[in-house]
Amino acid sequence: MTEASRPERCALCGRVLEELTRHHLIPRARHHNRRNKRRFGRTEVRERVIWVCRPCHSQVHRVLDEKTLERSYNTLEALQGHPEIRRFTRWIADKPAGFRPKGGRRRRR
Questions:
Q1: What pLDDT is attached to residue 63?
Q2: Local mean pLDDT, 10-residue blocks, the chain (109 residues)
Q3: CB neighbours of 76 closer than 8 A, spacing ≥ 6?
Q4: Strands 49-52, 21-24: parallel, antiparallel or unpaired by DSSP?
Q5: Is 12 inside a domain boundary?
Q6: Domain-embedded: residue 35
Q7: Which pLDDT score is estimated for 11?
Q8: What is the DSSP string of 37-82?
């Protein structure tokens, strides 16, 4: 999806926003991983992105580390199925466009 065809809705919470960020479903830091090179084509690794609002993007990275994102949550459906992500997106879905939540719990190590 190109910048020109960027959607106006967050792929996770569905809010209509002007400012969306690009989330790589296969984290960029993991693109050169041998396992990824076997599983995914070069173009797919780069182009497998979703557009999300900043609060949802921050929540995804707050809850999941890059390796887990790469291996288990590399599709929109998988991300939407994660219990903490689902809980957060339901909560934020009815908040106004400019709403930004304060901090939050960090991912467990």
A1: 93
A2: 70 90 78 62 72 93 89 90 95 87 62
A3: 11, 12, 25, 50
A4: antiparallel
A5: no
A6: yes
A7: 93
A8: HHHS-HHHHHH-EEEE-HHHHHHHHHH--HHHHHHH--SHHHHHHS
- Number of domains into which the chain is organized: 1
Judged on CB neighbours under 10 Å (0-12, 13-18, 19+), 79 is: buried
CA angle centred on 8, ends 85 and 10, rounded to 5°: 0
Q: Is the pTM of this model over 0.70?
A: yes
Q: Report how far residue 53's alpha carbon sits from residue 12's, in angstroms, rounded to the nearest whole number.
A: 8
Containing structural domain, residue 31:
18-92
What is the pLDDT at residue 10?
93
Find tokens 């997106």 and name the residue.
Answer: 89
